[in-house]
Design a protein that fits this description.
246 residues; mainly alpha; elongated
C-alpha cells in the first residue's frame, strides 16, 4: 500500500510539472517501477484471491519490474513512446480487474465492486492515452503521470487484499485458538462434501450391481432418433442388403 501511495505521489508530481521531460525523471521512475514490481511479486503468496487472480498479480508485478529495468537501461526514453507503453500496461491491468469482476458478477460483494470500479478506471485511462491527441492533447509527461496515478490505485487495492500472517512465536493464545478453529471448520466442511460424494458414488455402485445385465444393456443402448441410433440402423440396413445380394 505504501508502494501504491508512492506511485500516486510521483504521478501527481509529474502532472503538476508537465513541462519537464521524461528523460530528466527516468532514473527515479525506473527505480520506483523496479521496487513496485518486486513488492507486487512478493505479495503473490499472500494475496487472498483465487489461484487465477494470484497468477495475474504475479504477471502484473513481473511486467512492472521489467518496465523499470527497461527504463533504467534507457531502452524506453522517448517522450512520445513512453505514454503509449504505460497506457497499454494500464489497459491490460484494467482488463484483468474487469474480467475478475465479471467472473463474480453473481456474488455482488465488495470484491466485485472494487475490481469493477478500478478495472473500468484503468480501461478508460488506458484507452484515453491512445486518443489523447484527438481530445485534449495533453503533454506526454502529464499522460505518464496519469497512468502512474491510476496504476498506484490498483497497487493500493492489491495491498489491501494481502493476508497478514503473524509468525507463531508472536501469536497470542486467542489468535492460535481462532486460527485452529477456522482450520477445523474448513476441514469439517470439506469432510462433509467428501462424505456426500462417497455416499452418492456408493449408491450408484449398488444400483448398478442390483440391475440385471439385460436392463443395463437396454439403458445404455442408443435411443431411437439419435445420431448414434440412426447410424447403427443404417449400418444394419446395409448389412441386410449385402446378405440379400449374396
Amino acid at each position: 500500500m505504501l508502494t501504491g501511495l508512492l506511485f500516486i505521489g510521483a504521478g501527481v508530481f509529474l502532472v503538476a510539472n508537465g513541462g519537464v521531460t521524461f528523460l530528466s525523471v527516468a532514473f527515479v521512475a525506473g527505480v520506483m517501477f523496479v521496487i513496485a514490481g518486486i513488492v507486487e511479486c512478493l505479495s503473490y503468496s499472500s494475496y487472498r484471491g483465487d489461484n487465477v487472480e494470484r497468477s495475474w498479480i504475479l504477471n502484473d508485478g513481473t511486467t512492472t519490474f521489467v518496465l523499470g529495468v527497461l527504463i533504467l537501461l534507457n531502452k524506453i526514453s522517448a517522450d512520445a513512446v513512453v505514454p503509449m507503453i504505460l497506457g497499454l500496461w494500464v489497459l491490460i491491468t484494467g482488463i484483468r480487474n474487469f474480467v475478475h469482476a465479471w467472473e463474480h458478477v453473481e456474488e455482488r460483494g465488495n470484491a466485485f465492486y472494487d475490481h469493477l470500479i478500478i478495472g473500468l478506471l484503468n480501461i478508460i485511462f488506458g484507452l484515453y492515452v491512445f486518443f489523447d491527441s484527438e481530445i485534449f492533447n495533453l503533454a506526454s509527461i502529464t499522460m505518464i503521470g496519469l497512468c502512474i496515478i491510476v496504476q498506484g490505485i490498483n497497487i493500493i487495492h492489491v495491498g489491501a487484499t494481502i493476508r497478514i500472517v503473524k509468525p507463531k512465536f508472536i501469536k497470542t493464545k486467542e489468535e492460535m485458538l481462532e486460527e485452529a478453529a477456522a482450520k477445523f471448520e474448513e476441514a469439517h466442511a470439506n469432510a462433509k462434501e467428501a462424505i456426500k460424494a462417497a455416499k452418492a458414488a456408493q449408491a450408484e455402485l449398488k444400483s448398478v450391481e442390483r440391475t440385471p445385465k439385460e436392463l443395463l444393456d437396454l439403458a445404455l443402448a442408443p435411443k431411437p432418433g439419435t445420431d448414434t441410433a440412426d447410424g447403427e440402423n443404417a449400418q444394419t440396413d446395409k448389412d441386410e442388403e449385402k446378405q440379400d445380394e449374396n
